[in-house]
Every structure is written in structure tokens, then in C-alpha cells.
Amino acid sequence: MTGFTTLTQTQLDRWVAEARAISHTGRIPDYIPRLAEVNRDRIAVQVQAPNERCFSAGDSTHRFALMSVIKPFVLLFLLKQLGQQSVFRYVGKRPSDQVFHSLAQLTEDGGFPRNPMINSGAIALADLLPGKDGSDRCEALRHWLNHSSGASLTLDEAMLASVRSVGNETNRAIAQLLKQSGYLTSIETALDTYNHICCLSGTAIDLAQLGLLLASEQSMADDQRTVNALMLTCGLYEASGEFAVRVGVPTKSGVSGALLAVIPKHGAIACYSPPLDDTGNSVAGLWLLEQLVRSLNLSLFG
User: Fold this and answer.
1) What are the structural domains of the chain?
2) 90 — phi, psi (to 5°)?
3) Which end of the chain has fewer CB within 10 Å, C or N?
């Protein structure tokens, strides 16, 4: 592993131009109205090392909702607050082989969420966050993340209203099964919290700053290692295993087109490009990440 020392701005700019063209093979999700309205041509990447050495390309100051990329940080926050034993009473550590919002898989697993990176696991963990309602809980998480990382996350109120307008009966059915199985206290509070935290927004720069919470040598405690391992095995849903073999870095995606990769002890790579593949991962983001990891020899496996 060589780290980011050999990367050049010219090289990154060239890859971003190629990725912009590749993004046209993806689709824009339309089940959340505000996501369907985004500019599909926007693209951003931030490569950030703990020593503040960084490279930016594309629309790096454009804000976007993190969506599911927030899930590793919900896990990290709760591990720090409650400890591993308490957290993993409510969520498992096994990879998923079905879509990220699969009710069938949760039913098959007896109502126990398979991992924290899919909707069932994140909804269960949202119920453990401190605060009386979704707004309070989201604010507690936002404040901790901004204070810990130096990021400037804000709540995207318009995106939250758009998410609420849809209703999302699948997530409600997941929450009902979690409640019946004893892994949820309040369906309404958990769903409200989940909607809030997924609508936290930032730039690619902010997202890379968050990534450093999981990447810097000073933070390589058991909790960070646990989060990184689950990102590697579960962060890209049912595509996680194949991507881990081919690329080999902990990665988490979001339906907004956000993508975060952690390079332990070296830094973080944050990407944003809205068009998604069939699994729900950013087409351009995955391609960009693979070019960076392969060219800079960043894989955990050499």
C-alpha cells in the first residue's frame, strides 16, 4: 500500500472527466421526488489524508443528502456511547444477499436485522440514539459528528419533507416486524429518526472529513475496526463481497449518489454522482474509486 503520495491533480481531473461520461449508464432514483430532480451530471470527488493533504475535483462544494452513507457513523456513535455488547444485541454482523430494504430477508432471519448497513439494521439503531424524537436524535448525532470530524453537516429540510411525502410502507413494515421481534421500542420514533438522519447533508469535502474518523491512525480502536469491517462486507449491499474481492477497501454508498471509502491509516475518498447501478450504488463513484485504489495500490490486501 503506497497511500496518496503518487496521486496528481491532472490524473484525478482526467478520471473525473471519464467518470462523468460513464455515469450516463446509470439511473436516477425516482421514488423520492427530490432525488428525481437532481442534476445527473454533477460529480465530485475528495481525496483526503489525515495530514490535510487533499485533492478535489468536480463540484466539491455542492451539498447533497448523505442518505445511507450516514449508517456507518450511526454505528460508530452508538459503539462509543453504549459499547459493542449493547449495540449488537439489536443488530447482526452478517452480509446481506438481498436488496437493502428486503422485508423477506428480515422475516427469514426471525426479525433480527442482519447488519447495520441495510435499512432494518439502521432503523433498529436509530431507535437507540439519545433524544425524545427524531429531530433531537438527529441533532445529537449531527453535533457529535461535526465536533469530532470538523465537518459541517446540516439537515436538508426540503429532502426530509420529500422523504416524508412518500410514506415508505416497506420501511414501516420492517419497523413493525422489528417491534414484534423485540428489537424496537417505538415504531414512529425509530422511523422519524431514520428519516432525519438520512437527510443530513454535506459536501464531498465534509464526507471525506467524516471518513477520517475511521481512517486515521489515532482512531484505529476496536470500534473503528468494527465499522470498517462491516463497511467492507456489507456497505454496498449484495454487491459488497464482489467489490471487496475486486477492490478491497471499506466502502459505503447512499441512494443520493454519495459514496465513501476508508483507507485505514491513510485517508478517505468521498465521491458524489447521482446515477445508480441496479444495486443502488453510484456508477461513477464506484468506477472512480476503483481507478484510485488500483492506481495508488490502496487495497487492504496488497
Assistant:
1) 9-62+204-296 (3.40.710.10), 68-200 (3.40.710.10)
2) -110, -10
3) C
Contact by Cβ (8 Å): 3, 298? yes
The number of C-alpha atoms within 13 Å of 234 and in the hemisphere containing its C-beta is 27
* 3-state SS class at 38: coil
| Helix boundaries (H) for 150-221 | 157-166, 169-180, 187-198, 204-215
What's the CA gap between 117 and 122, in Å, rounded? 6
Cell of 178: 422489528
Residue count of the chain, please give it.
302
Q: What is the pTM of this model?
A: 0.96
Per-residue pLDDT of 24-33, as tens digits, reads: 999 999 999 9
Q: Report whether pLDDT(157) > 80.
A: yes
Number of other residues whose CB lies within 10 A of the CB of residue 264? 20
Q: Report, in angstroms and rounded to the nearest whole number, the Rg of the chain calculated over CA atoms.
A: 18
- Where b means 16+ CB within 10 Å and e means fewer, 8-22 reads eeebbeebbeebbeb
Looking at every residue in the chain, the average pLDDT score rounds to 95
Side chain identity, residue 266: H
Distance CA 172, CA 193 (A): 13
